[in-house]
């Protein structure tokens, strides 16, 4: 992926997406457009990602983590994890993370209360740029309690309470919203993958993955024709985050036909493959995980042509 290329191709890509959005309706013989309906997934369909896997998905009502109890940032440096790639660590070697619900332009933190207990904010006061870290990308943001939080590339930085030792990356992918920080403030990832691509899984065969190498899934209660409809709403989305829209040309190995987006009931845009809505799984902690496969008998990895891998035919 090349940022400059992406910027230059926005107009062309937008036109391509517009053209593709009629495909599902044409193939199904019905009218085109988005429908904002769909039943909420039953509890058994959501899946069990284990205790703590969904921590810090938003603000909480618990006591605010005390800045006095937080460890200083110290000298930041870049470390390499075999699965994730290059990421930023603090002076003690602990992984630093970013939260998708925060913003970088302008920097803003949304993790408070219980969230800040599970994801302690990194103090900005003593942060130093070590090897591989650009001092110019370090900054700070004022938290609601008046303390200053470190930012990297504009993104507020956190640690994860369950990382017990230097080098731990247990926070990677938690809730589908927490990711290790790269030195430029982006999400750390092992390879410069396209927005959607495929990999050969030893058990499932060729399956679709996102730009972080995380497995992409389909929900069998969704609809594709005549228009995409997602049945995963509410709490379901905390464990099955939607795949955001991708540029059609920013894919590799995925069948381009009916690669489109649609508008969800909450107004958000979601990507589809073969017109079927696609998701990732909060229980997948690192690239290569397929813990969502077969959950509830309704969630399955996606083949390059959009079919659910391993689902029983009706």
Automatic annotation (TrEMBL):
Keyword Transferase: no
Region (Disordered): 286-314
Signal peptide feature range: 1-25
Protein's UniProt keywords contain Signal: yes
Keywords: Signal
Domain of life: Bacteria
Record-level GO BP terms: alkane catabolic process
NCBIfam families assigned: SCO0930_lipo
PANTHER family: BLL4220 PROTEIN
Protein name from the UniProt record: Lipoprotein
Species, as recorded: Streptomyces mutabilis
């Amino acid at each position: 992926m090349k940022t400059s290329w992406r910027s230059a191709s926005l107009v062309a890509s937008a036109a391509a997406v517009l053209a593709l959005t009629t495909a599902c309706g044409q193939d199904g013989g019905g009218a085109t457009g988005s429908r904002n309906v769909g039943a909420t997934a039953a509890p058994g369909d959501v899946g069990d990602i284990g205790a703590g896997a969904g921590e810090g998905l938003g603000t909480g009502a618990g006591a605010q983590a005390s800045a006095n109890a937080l460890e200083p940032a110290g000298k930041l440096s870049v470390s390499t994890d075999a699965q994730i790639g290059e990421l930023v660590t603090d002076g003690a070697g602990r992984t630093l993370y970013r939260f998708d619900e925060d913003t970088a332009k302008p920097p803003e933190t949304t993790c408070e209360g219980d969230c800040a207990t599970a994801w302690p904010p990194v103090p900005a006061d003593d942060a130093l740029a070590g090897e591989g870290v650009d001092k110019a990308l370090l900054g700070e943001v004022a938290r609601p309690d008046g303390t200053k939080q470190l930012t990297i590339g504009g993104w507020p930085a956190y640690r994860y309470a369950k990382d017990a030792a230097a080098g731990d990356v247990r926070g990677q992918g938690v809730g589908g919203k927490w990711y290790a920080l790269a030195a430029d403030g982006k999400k750390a990832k092992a390879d410069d993958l396209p927005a959607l691509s495929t990999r050969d899984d030893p058990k499932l065969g060729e399956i679709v993955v996102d730009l972080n190498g995380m497995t992409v899934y389909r929900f069998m209660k969704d609809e594709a024709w005549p228009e995409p409809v997602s049945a995963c709403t509410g709490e379901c989305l905390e464990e099955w985050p939607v795949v955001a829209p991708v540029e059609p040309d920013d894919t590799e190995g995925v069948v381009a036909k009916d690669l489109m987006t649609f508008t969800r009931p909450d107004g958000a845009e979601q990507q589809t493959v073969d017109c079927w809505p696609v998701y990732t799984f909060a229980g997948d902690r690192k690239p290569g995980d397929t813990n969502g496969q077969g959950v509830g008998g309704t969630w399955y990895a996606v083949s390059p042509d959009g079919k659910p891998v391993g689902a029983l035919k009706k």
